Amino acid sequence: MGELITIDNPDDPRLHDYTGLTDVELRRRREPAEGLFIAEGEKVIRRAGEAGYAMRSMLLSAKWVDTMRDIIDEAPAPVYVVAPALAERVTGYHVHRGALASMRREPLPTAADLLRTARRVVVMESVNDHTNIGAIFRSAAALGMDAVLLSPDCADPLYRRSVKVSMGAVFSVPYARLDRWPAGLETVREAGFTLLALTPDERAKALDEVAPHRMDRVALLLGAEGDGLSRRALAASDEWVRIPMSHGVDSLNVGAAAAVAFYAVATGRPSA
Fold first, then answer.
1. From CA 218, how far away is CA 206, in angstroms rounded?
2. Is the pLDDT of residue 80 over 80?
3. Tell me, what's the pLDDT at 2?
């Protein structure tokens, strides 16, 4: 059972995991180095626990203690109860959901491990916006993608914003990082996947023409917002594919494009 501990000093060292949550660069470096990530809100905390992540501690405002009682009773970790104003001083923002948990990271699988059993894979290149990462993971989970592979410079899926936007879907879809880019794509191809590069380029074939849902194994490559896939990634792919557009629109936000493309990979209906 978690021990309820009331804290009224924002400089208490026991709150170290929760300090400066709005400092993106600091948290990007610190969280992986310290082997932790932050889950925010009741649903996300529950999903992190259900996915097997161990809790280091929890930070709650008093009114959330009853709501989180079952988790408190099961978690062998301290539960720090603080006033909302103190939580804001520690974290750097108003914690309107009233509940945060520091969770232990698990070692990532290798790309080869994931590719062994997957059939539908997402490969992201240089997607460094945490909101887009979270949105893509949420769509990948909802639309039946089996795994996600990240280029070395992609953002951290377990960063608080990514986890929050995905509503915990980052815990549902296994992911790994490719150590070399784009050379790591050869590992994907050797595992029997057809590499489809999603691009608005007019030379690309429409998704319905390529019919990815009929392919045995498909890896869908997605690039960063704005820049899209690099020339090297496009050159390393087997086929360029695009989503048909109307009304003079040339492209979609990468999160929206991912959802449409995932649906096409699963069902063969890329547009309505």
1. 16
2. yes
3. 67
